[in-house]
Design brief:
about 300 residues, alpha/beta, Rossmann fold, 2 domains, about 40% helix, globular, binds N-carbamoyl-L-aspartate
Length: about 300
Amino acid sequence: MSIHGRDIVSIRDLSREEIEGLLASARKMIPLAEGSRSSRALKDKVVAMAFFEPSTRTRLSFEAAVHRLGGNCLTIADAGATSLRKGESLYDTIRMLSSYSDAIVLRHPNEGAARLAARASERPVINAGDGAGQHPTQTLLDLATMHEAFGTLSGLSVVLLGDLKYGRTVHSLAYALAQFGSEIVLSSPPSLRLPEQHLAELKRLGAKVREEPLLASAVKAADVLYVTRIQKERFADDAEYRAVSGSYRIDTSVLAHAKPRLIVMHPLPRAGEIAPEVDATPHAAYFRQAFLAVPVRMALLAGILGPARRGA
Ligand code: NCD
């Protein structure tokens, strides 16, 4: 099925074939993302960036993707500068924005906000992170990074490390890994385990999933170590945060027993979970991952807004 005109709220909105099509299209976008070729695929298109929560990479890579394809952006980078401050509902804001643009990229602190926005909008809505919910476009670039490193997304052993309770990047990524048949190894402090509803659903889908709280054991057999930041802003209680803050850190001694081809990934920003000394090792993939955000989001926008055709 084509993704033309579709909302992307959850990674589960995309089939395995659609994800594979997007990744193939993203590979072709790399020279365009680097600026060595140009494209007008989004000429005359306006994409609204509605960001009601802090963002660096997600918003800027979406904007870079639009510019590289010859389109234009309308950007809300600060919720405080909009009429939400005056009490306007998200529904009304999105409804209006959809009449100013051809698609809306939304980031919002509330889980479920993107689903609501998709109902309010007459144009496609792309979820760029809804609270502790989902972050499907991050998953696409995470998969692109793994595919570039290993040439496959099947049969890998992927450790998801850190805040699996509030981290939306891992909530999305786990479902995609299940779809591709890679092993999911969950490693987190006890209070930040993956919520039971996700664990049960992953098992129901037939995912190869297991918990391994011991970091050293998790790292030994891993192909990918996906590190996350503790989502400080989502804790209701500061004491709960302080109890887990700094409880894991990847440095060269942790990686001493890793497979030589292990890649360390992180959606970024990092806040002390990966020591800077790891940057100089062949394991570090997080800056390449951040770059791949651009070609992946180009492929997604071109698929949603470009000419309607079969395939992605
Ligand atoms: C992540 C997010 O916003 O969920 N960042 C990103 O999009 N690259 C991860 C995080 O903030 O920890």
